[in-house]
Design goal:
By secondary structure, the chain is mostly helical. The protein has helices at about 5-20, 25-80, 90-100, 105-115, 140-150, 160-165, 170-175, 185-195, 200-205. The protein has 9 helices and no strands. The protein is elongated. About 30% of the residues are buried. It comes from Candidatus Nomurabacteria bacterium RIFCSPHIGHO2_02_FULL_35_13.
Amino acid sequence: MNKNNLIRFAQSLLFLPFVTGTTVPMGSILMNTTEETIRTVFIQKENIEADGFLAFNQVIDQKAKDSKAKAEAIDSYFESKDMPLLGMGMKMVEEAEKNNLDWRLLPAIAVRESTGGKFECKKVSNNPFGWGSCKIGFDSNEEAIETVARNLGGNNPNTEKHYDNKTTKQILRAYNPPSIVLRYAEQVISIMNAIGPEDMTLAVNS
């Protein structure tokens, strides 16, 4: 070994202890590096899951706020007209959401058919929608809301051919055809607009 190489070799031996303080086996270095990597990945995973959970909760919270605003708009309309269906707003919103209906459809039909429960079917009980030509009664208004929503949403095999995959106007024309009441659909839609805008989310957040 020439003189220069010998000097460099000696310097390297002196430098290593100065940096590390003690001699560290190479396996320990690799193990520590691996553990640190695992720890970093784990922390990142926890952060991602926390962010995802937070975002999910925010979506759920916003949805609840939107539903509450819609229910309040329905009940406010019923209250302004002194209608017996006051208090059914949230139930109508929930059933509309379950059956992919415009949230204003059920209350508007009830207003058009029975003035919000004031003049519901006489021969049967709890039918403010005129459902089944007033030949079908229910144990409660809640049951009536569930049944009408399920049918209008196309989720009853016995009636889905009339209502499934249709727009709100088409649903109304199937519910009460123009041949029976000429402008029925337009009348109900007018009531829907009086209750509130279709996109209540924008109305609430604006």
